[in-house]
Amino acid sequence: MRTALTGRRATIFVAVALLVLAACGGEDEGSGGGGGDQSDAGPYRLGLVHSSEGPFASNSATMREGANYAVDLINADGGVNGRDIELVEVDARNDPQTLVTAIPQLVSEEEVFAILAPVDSAGCEIACAIAADLEVPTLSAGAGRPGVLEPSRPWSFTMTAPDASNSIPVLQAVVEEEGFETAAIIVDEANATTQAQADLYREVFDGTDVEVVSTTTFASGDSSFASQVTSMSAESPDVIALAAGPADAARIAVEIRSQGLEALLIGTGSLQAGGTDYINGAGEAAEGTLTAAQFNPENPDEPAASLLAQAEEDNDLESVSLNFAYAFDIVNLIATYLTDSGATASPDTLEADRQGLLDYLEDVEAYEGMSGDVAFAEDGTGDRPELYAVVENGEFVISEVGS
Predict the structure, then answer these.
(1) What is the distance in angstroms between the CA of the first residue and the CA of the last residue of the chain?
(2) Residue 136 falls inside a structural domain
(3) Mean pLDDT value of segment 166-183
């Protein structure tokens, strides 16, 4: 549950966190050249686009929580340049048409400075392209489908590495080490992101000479997966690849184990990115599931370790999810730019200040945040480590490939 912080503990934590983050952000050549008291100017307004429906609703919810937590902390410590940050939220409900109308409204009517884009690739592709046409910087805490940013560069960024570059080498290493011979894929055919995941799995299996003996489909939210699992069971695959959002993947896992299949369950990084949703939904059926990963909620390095520990305590979390941490870092990246540049984001400087934020994001190197070191590749995607996660005793246990 998100809680606003007050008192000495909150003030000390926010001050330390922002100082650490700002120190890694570098100087910007934007409109202001340094912060100052702008308390009479009203809040800085950021758009936040989430979805309470669809296969990645849980990922979207944790993204929203991470962003709001960052704003609560910043505002509790006096804001940025004497001004609060305000999130102008839009619930797209997994509806592309809502994005088509909402993004221009955020820009022209709400005059947001930048936008936290949808966490899912399908939503990000639409929202980011529209925002790019309007020359507004957008950052997603989760979009990882290969090529998702191509229609919207250079105005769009994602904190994640592309699923392909992150997941394929990780999963291929696992498949080769285990010596699997046959595989099955189950895919949500109603979602572009999960369809891309299925293509990723095919590349993994093609590259390791594993025969795909079964491919079954479903639509997000289906009430039962009995027929799909029965079809897979007939082929006795060694490994089953889950191309699904966390909630659907959990119910699929339960059905797989209830029918007695012992195949290894694997997922892309987006399954681990959902935090505990898959594990809580699947229970014992999740044990042993292996996914690619690019975020370690037990990162021992500072300042990530302290930020993660404080977030768990303040929000009553068992573990901080990827989307929570990435959204937290997005807000602080923007806050750092505003502090360093002194940008006012007022109507007469808004265009120049947005360009300044874009230039700042293009040049960020090894920004140290809750999610670890943050940097963007030339295509705007996150530069992240190759990790994998295994569900052990109800938790994702993170390891480096080859360790």
Answers:
(1) 35
(2) yes
(3) 92
Q: What pLDDT does residue 9 have? A: 35
CA distance 27 to 327: 22
The β-bridge partners of 388 are: 292, 399
The CA-atom distances, in angstroms, between 301 and each of 145, 233, 237, 260, 310 are 28, 43, 39, 41, 14
- Shared domain for 99 and 144, answered yes or no, is yes
Nearest to 46 by CA among 74, 75, 81, 87: 87
- At a CB cut-off of 8 Å and minimum separation 6, what does 194 contact? 55, 187, 188, 220, 243, 244, 245
Write out the two tokens for 55. Answer: 């296969």
Token digits of residue 26: 């570098």
Between helices 57-76 and 304-315, what is the axis angle to 10°? Answer: 100
**Residue 394 domain-assigned (yes or no):** no
Q: If you search the block for the tokens 């007695």, which residue do you land on?
A: 260
Extract the tokens encoding 281: 């939904």
Q: Which residues contact 277 (CB under 8 A, 6 or more apart)?
A: 58, 59, 246, 247, 250
pLDDT at 38: 82
Over residues 297-323, the mean pLDDT reads: 94
Distance between CA atoms of residues 391 and 369, nearest Å: 25
> CB within 8 A of 117, min separation 6: which ones?
49, 123, 124, 127, 128, 131, 138, 139, 140, 143, 156, 158
Instruction: Give tens-digit pLDDT for 9-66.
Output: 343 344 444 444 443 444 444 444 555 778 778 999 999 999 999 888 989 999 999 9
Note whether 73 and 10 are within 8 A (CB).
yes
One domain, residues 28 and 107: yes
Q: Please give the tally of structural domains in the chain.
A: 2
